[in-house]
Amino acid sequence: MASINKLSIRGIRSFNPDDEEQVIQFCLPLTIIVGANGCGKTTIIESLKYAMTGSLPPGNKSGQTFVHDPKSAGHTKVKASVKLRFTNRAGNSMVVIRSMEVTQKKTSLTFKGLDGILRTTDPQTGERISMSHKCTELDRQIPTMIGVSKPILEHVVFCHQEESSWPLMEGAILKKRFDDIFDSTRYTKALEALRKTRLEYASNVKDIKADLVMYASHQHAANQYREELESTTEKLSVCHDEIQEMGVEVQSETKKMKEAEKIIAQVEVMMDDVSEKLAEVENARAVYNSQRDLLEVDMASSHSRKDLSKMLSEFNEDMISQEIEYKEKTDEMQSVRMIIEDFGKKSSKLNSVKGKLSAEHDANTSLLNQRSILVGKLASDYRVDLQGRGNVGNSQSTAVTNLTSGTGVQTQLQYMGIDTTSKSGKSGIESQMSAGSTVVSSSQHQPVMLNDVEVDRFQRILKEKEQQLRNELNDFKTQLETDQDNFQQQLSELMAKQKAVENEKSRFSNDQRNARREILSLSNHQTQQSRVRKTDVDQARQFSLQALHDRDEMSKNSRLMDIPAEIRHCDAQIDDIQRSIDNDGYLLKDLRSTAEEQNAVRMLESQIKQDVEGVNELLKEQNYLFIKYNLEQPDAVDLRSLEGLYLTVVEKSETLNKELNEEQNDLENKQREATEKQTILQQSDQRKHNLKRKVSILLSDNRGVKKIASVIDEIIQSEAEWDMTSKVSRDVQPQDLLTHMSNTLNDLSSDEDNTETISKAIKTLKKMSKIKDSRGQTTHLECPCCLRNMGADEVVVFSERMGDLANKETSQLILLDKHQIKEDQRKKAMYSNWRKIVANGLNDWLDFDRIKYDLNEVENKVEQVVQEVALLEGELDEMKNSTTELENQMNEIRALLPHVVRARDDGTRIESKREDVRSRKDKLSYMDPSGGGRDLKTVEDDLSKNTEKKDQLVKDISRKNSELSNLNNRISKSSKAASDADMRFRDVEGKYKKDQESSSRKQSLQETIEKCAREEKRLVDQIAPLRQQIKSKEANRNRMRSAAKADEDRMRKNMDSLISDLRSLKSVSQRISGYFRNRSDEELERVIADLTKIDGDICSSKEKLTEMEPRIETLKFQLNEQSRHKKCIEANIKLYDSLENIKRLSEEHSEMHHGVQEISGYETAKGSYKIAEAEKRQKEDQKARSEGRKSGLKDQQRQLKRKLQQEEYKDVDEEHRESMIKFETTTIAISDLEIYYSALDKALLQFHGMKIGDINKIIRELWTLTYKGEDISNIELVSDQGTSKASRSYNYRVVMSKGNTQMDMRGRCSAGQRVLASLVIRLALAETFCISCGVFALDEPTTNLDYENKRGLAIALAQILATRSAQHNFQLLIITHDEDFVTMMKNELATQSGKFPMPDKYFQVSREEGQDGCFYSKINAIDWDEL
């Protein structure tokens, strides 16, 4: 028998990994371990389970928290070990050592289980043997060594505290636990495997039998195919000899044809050459005639070819010289134009620079004025003495005078309007300027002009002023924070005092309320219940002791042990009788087999008749297809005709399939072509879309096309307004438009300023009006236009008029001329802008023309492809219709084929069943069953007697179970009565004690109420003055904050105003300094001088260009005329060449025609060729017929071979033999599997029922003994068989009996009842299954148990120890923190003294401080007497 002896722990949970191992020596039969919560008691159970099974505690699947924490130990790696000495079921002492380690990573822990060691001693030699095993090997070996399965060890013997109530968990978990404990899953799986295997074999045997019949028919057909193949091979050999003979004769005739063909081919080649040469002559003449018609001047009649060549060479020399001159003039003209263009670009750049510099000059002047105003304003606002840094006072003029007298700087005074409110620090200057005049208000700042040094000094003064204001603001804020802190501290102290007083008052009030509530509760309780006397307590104690005595007397009844033995004896007799019944059943089956065989023959004949009718009906349904495709309808009972129909349909299907494939290939090719066209169409559409998108982009308002069109409209409209003769139309090209605008700009540039010319002309007219004599004296005045003398009045008017016309300021002529010049400049600017727009958009215009051309081509291509696609779609529709027709035929044949196959297979099965009928009838003729000395009647009588004996024994077992149940019920009632009496005694005793305690408690509570009332009144008097002081302090603090906020805002506003003004002054000064550093005035003067020089250069270049244009036009005209004359000469030379070519070709044609006429034998060769060709055709026809016959024979031979190579005919003999063997062996295997399944199923059912009965018997005894309540009379484990007929499974549940009603205990019991029921069930399981190992551990068994149930559990455990004391290896391990329960156990064990030895020691677990300052678990052994 197996037991555990000694356990040592190191490094597990709170056990020290560096100190010595903690050891516990297990006692027989009881070991008690006590300790406070959290000291490490449960770790002992966990270590025992890990040593035995290798299973980690719940929630520690990965094992990191099972080992001592490395962080707590101060190491990166901690090793732990568990050692257990135990005795195996053979009585040998063994030691198992399991080690593990945990490593601390950066963010996680890793657990590693090390190889374990199993150590034992050789009983013969005494030598110690150690074996290292992997963890999984130890997990399998140790449960085997102690004779208990792993599920029993995990869930019953060493059950963890967290899983102690597993018998009342949900159904799925409970089923899995009990299946593991009963180990029924393995046998259930075996039953399921046997059942499935038998069903699979039964299904396979039908298929095998059908295959066997099919192979027989295939074997018969294969023999016929082999005979046909031999006949076809002989015919093929004869046909081959005929083909070879015809081949020799065809070769002879072919040789004759080749000899004649050589002569014919030679003549025909020469005749083709003659024809080709004649065609060349005709072509040459046609070319000559066309060249002659195209001549502009026919020079061939008056000049020879030599003369024309000489004229051409001389003409080339003259043209070369003129082209050189024309190129030089053109290059020179282009160079001048480029120079003018460069001058224009330089002029534009200089004008841009000039404008920029002028703007900078004006801006700098404005900045100087702005700075002078800003300095005057700042000096006044901030009272800055610009000379002595003192206060200015109220007079601005004083400050200005001091500044100018001290520095000698010239000042300029301007008057600016300033808001009168700016004296109080308002930032900013509000100036009013209009048309060079100054608006003066009643309150103004005087502007001051300073140089850069003076401005820097002024800015430093303002920065010092800013720093002064900032320091004042910081000092003010510091003082304000100090004052606020003092106020807040005083206020916090007052509020803290108030809070403390109120809390104290609230505490006294709560104490009074609680005391009054408790007094009221005690009074109500005493009123509702009657008082208990001392005599009532003594009477209840005496009644409880008498009930316990009665219960113990009933538990000693000897029938409780005799009845189970009698039941087991009856079960053994039932097993023997059942075996006899099974044997007689098999014998009875054999005796009745003859009748069954005859029934089988009749059934087969009926099936054959039905199958024949089914085949006929099937063939009748497909009759219309047989007629449509000219198929002969077979006979349903003739297997050969069905095979022939099958082959015909397959051949028809292959033919249609081939035609369909060819039609589908053509359709795919046509679809591919259509797809290509569609792709081309899509690509063209895409390109068309892209081109249209580009057109829309180019036609957008910001692109060149729209801009050029707009320019054309503007030019046409403007030139019409200006009365100019427009050369621009709406379809003008941009290149021509650019030329027009360049010419117009040149015309506008030629106009000059005629002011001086007009003045000189007027002065000349004035001189011409003066008529002088010979002395040069003026005699009179006459009109210079009409030569009329003028009178004195007219002279005065004339003189004044001429003076007015000569005056540049008032002359209408000059003013009109200036107006015209301005108008021309405006036009010039407009044309320049237009030319720039056209030049920039020229590329867009060219792209637009190109894209429009491409778009037209793409649209034409799209129309063409659309027509081609429409044509292809028509062809596709026709081909699809043809393909659809073939597919319909193919689908009909394919639909017919399964029916034909089915008819053939049905015919095969009919033939097989006929063969089976014949064999069964033969078998019936020689069958003679024998009963081994007994006939059918004797066997049936013996079977009936054994069945009656079995029923009688079952009734005896039922009667004995009823008797045992009555005894247990009487014991249960006695136990319940004892429990009720003890409960009543404790209830009376408790009520008596409570009455005494309530009286003393009420007096103490009344004193507490009076004391709290006095203290509460004292605290109320202290609260009112504190509240008044807090309100006063809060009001003072708010007033101080408001005043400080206003002062701080005012100071911050003054400082921000100063900073803003200083920043504005600095920005203006920097911009002024930057202007003077760049020397922009000098740059402006230089640009004006360069512009004047460039304008003169442009005028001179234009004059030179005007002089060159006439000569270039003359050269261009001469070159065009000479080129035309040159082409005429070259055409006449080509005409001479064509005439010479015609003469040469005519001579060659005549020579070739003469050569053809010299060849003889042409007609004879043609006759021989025709005769040989006729003979050859005849022989080839004979050969083709022979080859066709040979091809047919080959196809027939190939088809026969292919049929023989098909799966149903290839190796058909071997397959028929193997199928026969497989059929017989499978039939035998099915019979054996039925026997195995029945035997295993009965054994499993009997074992399961027996174990459930044993468990419930023990549960009933223990529940009656331990449970002290009156509501639940009994609990039991109920096993319901699964509803599935295919496989055997069990569902488990725990039920409780309340009176005559049974109900599920899960969800209907209290926490204490659940704990007690789980303990009872575990004890019963241990009693039932732990035959080889008497170890049982209880971890905190009293959880949720009241006093009475604790005492009942102690009594039950004591009795279990007494009854199991005879078993020398029984061990009960109790771990608890409940000292009352330990005391009960000690008292109950004392009552059982003498039946088993008392333990010498018990063990106490505690947490003690180690050398490193941490607390670790320690195990100490203490004498039993000290418990």
Overview of this protein structure:
Helix 6 packs across helix 22 and helix 16 runs antiparallel to helix 19. The protein is an alpha+beta fold and 1427 residues long. Helices cover 72% and strands 8% of the residues. The protein has 27 helices and 19 strands. A hairpin with a 4-residue loop joins strand 5 and strand 6. The relative contact order is 0.13. Strands 1, 2, 4, 5, 6, 7 and 8 form a seven-stranded antiparallel β-sheet that branches. The protein has a five-stranded mixed β-sheet with strand order 16-17-3-18-19, sandwiched between helices. About 5% of the residues have low confidence.
Radius of gyration, whole Å: 66 Å
Low-pLDDT runs: 388-444, 926-933
How many beta-strand elements?
A: 19
| General form | flat
Tally of helical segments: 27
Overall pLDDT: 75
* Helix share bin: over 70%
Strand content: 5-15%
- Can you summarize the main beta sheet? 7 strands, antiparallel
Query: How far apart are the termini?
Result: 30 Å
What class do helices, strands and sheet pairing give?
alpha+beta
